[in-house]
Design goal:
Shape: globular
Largest sheet: none
Distance between the termini: 21 Å
Radius of gyration: 17 Å
Order of helices and strands: HHHHHHH
Number of helices: 7
């Protein structure tokens, strides 16, 4: 792990810690696990958005953003991990592992869950394909 990769993971943790602290101190009426899930979701969305924005920004402004391209992989992996943590918290805490109801038409959030599951599968495939073993095989 190089220094920049460690810095990216620390920054990812700080983003999560900021939103977790904000959600816990705001006394929004939700329980602890709901606040952790919301914080993971927000931090994951921000990290993956940064990863997706770094490519075009480095093409438009190469002097300012081309050196930040090495942070894309660790930020993407951290965002995927936070998305997976969010998914697991919601499945175990909110739906009590009832996948039959979660992916049925009786669930009012059915389409949101279908798109969320597809997005999570795509993120996991991208994360696995970014491992050094698969990169060497390309």
């Amino acid at each position: 792990m190089f220094r920049g990769e460690f810095r990216a993971y620390v920054n990812s943790f700080l983003v999560l810690a900021f939103f977790l602290t904000f959600n816990l101190l705001s006394k929004n009426g939700f329980g602890f696990w709901e606040n952790v899930a919301r914080s993971c979701l927000i931090a994951s969305t921000i990290l993956i958005s940064i990863v997706l924005l770094l490519g075009p920004l480095s093409r438009l402004f190469p002097k300012k953003f081309s050196h930040d391209l090495l942070y894309r992989k660790p930020l993407g992996l951290a965002g995927t991990l936070l998305a997976l943590v969010y998914f697991l918290i919601v499945v175990f805490n909110t739906y009590r592992l009832d996948l039959g109801f979660q992916f049925s038409a009786a669930n009012p959030d059915f389409f949101a869950w279908v798109f969320w599951a597809l997005a999570l599968i795509i993120l996991l495939v991208l994360s696995v394909m970014s491992l050094p073993y698969y990169i060497r095989r390309l």
